[in-house]
Specification:
The chain is of the alpha+beta class and 215 residues long. The protein folds into 2 domains: 55 residues; 150 residues, no CATH class. It is built from 6 helices and 11 strands. The strands form 2 sheets. Strands 1, 5, 6, 7, 8 and 9 form a 6-stranded antiparallel β-sheet that branches. It has a 5-stranded antiparallel β-sheet with strand order 4-3-2-10-11. The longest helix is centred in the N-terminal third of the chain and has 24 residues. The protein starts with a helix and ends with a helix. Keywords: Membrane, Transmembrane, Transmembrane helix. This is Multidrug transporter.
Length: 215
């Protein structure tokens, strides 16, 4: 199920549950005691939770298997200063000046379990930021840092909430980052699966950068 369809289904289910619960409370003769009232209150909470999931799913993109999510090209401007072109598969390219010896891309991945998984909702991802890194620990501590946000987090994010409260039916995958050395004219592809990011060199300059780095 695509993220767009999942958003519609979850929003519809959540809205129906919330409205049904409120109508039930508006008619006291239907309440047969404290137990029934608590049950309805539980349905209301589940409906609100489903609506919150729907809002967040709309801000993530569908993830199915290993797929290319962006490309990165680097051009040297000065010592440890690079022009980085980040071009996502969906969305407008970002061109920024980045300090450092390496580039890094971070992403957030949401996986679903229980009834949300039964609906066939695919894992979702959101590219978070592009940043520069230094190979020297001293420079990493003292030199200028470059951090470019690739998306807006919003005021309510399931990934953050899951890290803090371990939400039911939702798993925010932690530590999804990939990094590669900067090199003039290098082009990399950023690929993503439900377990994390990986960078793949796409031209000779990128392959030489990786070979030198690993050597």
């Amino acid at each position: 199920m695509s993220q767009e369809l999942a958003t519609i289904v979850l929003a519809a289910v959540g809205s129906i549950l919330v409205i049904a619960s409120l109508l039930f409370f508006l008619r006291p003769r239907w309440l047969l005691g404290w137990l029934k009232g608590m049950a309805v209150f539980g349905v209301l909470l589940f409906g609100l939770y489903t609506l919150a999931v729907a809002v967040n799913v709309a801000r993530y993109q569908s993830l199915s298997g290993m797929q290319t999510v962006a490309s990165i090209a680097t051009t040297k401007q000065a010592e440890r200063l690079w022009r980085v072109t980040f071009e996502p598969v969906e969305g407008a390219p970002t061109i920024e000046t980045v300090n450092g010896d390496q580039w890094q891309v971070d992403a957030r991945i949401i996986r679903f379990a229980g009834p949300l998984r039964w609906l066939g909702i695919a894992p979702g991802y959101r590219l978070e930021r592009l940043s520069g890194r230094y190979t020297s620990l001293e420079l990493e501590r003292t030199a200028p840092r470059s951090v470019i946000q690739l998306s807006d987090t919003g005021w309510l994010d399931l990934w953050d909430l899951d890290q803090e409260f371990d939400l039911p039916f939702v798993e925010g995958v932690y530590g999804n980052a990939t990094f590669m050395p900067m090199r003039d004219g290098a082009v990399f592809e950023v690929r993503l699966s439900s377990s994390g990011l990986v960078a793949v060199p796409m031209n000779e300059a990128a392959r030489q950068a990786v070979q030198f780095w690993n050597g």
